[in-house]
Amino acid sequence: MGSLVFVGTGLQLAGHISVRSKDYIEKADVVFTLVPESNAQHWVEGLNDNIVDLQPFYAQEGEIKSRRDTYKEMVAAIIDAVRADKKTVCALYGHPGVFACISHIAIAQAKKEGFNAHMEPAISAEACLWADVGIDPGKSGNQGYEASQFMFFKHIPDPTTYLLLWQISLAGEHTLTKFHTDSDRLQILVEQLSEWYPLEHEIIIYEAANLPVFEPRIDRIKLQDLPYAKLNHISTLVIPPSKKLEYNIEVMEKLGITPEDLG
Ligand SMILES: C[S@@+](CC[C@H](N)C(=O)[O-])C[C@H]1O[C@@H](n2cnc3c(N)ncnc32)[C@H](O)[C@@H]1O
Fold first, then answer.
1. Tens of pLDDT along 33-57?
2. Which of 9, 31, 114, 210 is 20 to 30 A from 96 via CA?
């Protein structure tokens, strides 16, 4: 009987993958991969002879194709392998379920058809970010959004916490056919954010290194300069708090404590 496991390779070649996830890849009948970094892709290819790279499902040079169609085709290919009784593994970079829709869709579909399907946890860009930038998200809390979703919906950020905007290089791109935003859209995002953050507020463009020999990119710029910043598909925007945490006196009174009790 076929089965399906999604695993994550982490962000750095070979060193970030869990022992269990590597084992699943080695023992699979077929391994689908979406690991954009070529060294990491070659490394996975060395673990199993039956690899299917999902990258060609994306629009090719000169082609206009919605990523929605791409994801449907990827899921269909994966589910076909499960239906053909194959022990199927799909390896995505980072964490396979973090800002990655095909894993959630394919697992739900496989389970609906009665197959065993699950996801292994892995090291995401966010896990690397806390380590590289030296932030403990427990200190004041954190919020994370896909940048375009943040723009299209009425999300209300809490400026006392860290705010992460994923896929910042696609901010405001609604057609799902292009792979980059532009400075006009980023200017609209800056205006939106200025409701909570001063234009001079320091923000960070973060890119984890995908090889151990490289350094991460941690560029600190002013919010107002975002439209002119160099953004890549791997950039994540970090907006540090602009305000101090405020005591919730009402709740604290109910608990019978005062700010002084917190030391
Ligand atoms: C489609 S999501 C995939 C996330 C991935 N599943 C993970 O667990 O990190 C792509 C977004 O993840 C973030 N990302 C991916 N690689 C990154 C890197 N090397 N450094 C920082 N952020 C990264 C960026 O926000 C990027 O636009």
1. 999 888 999 999 999 999 999 999 9
2. 114
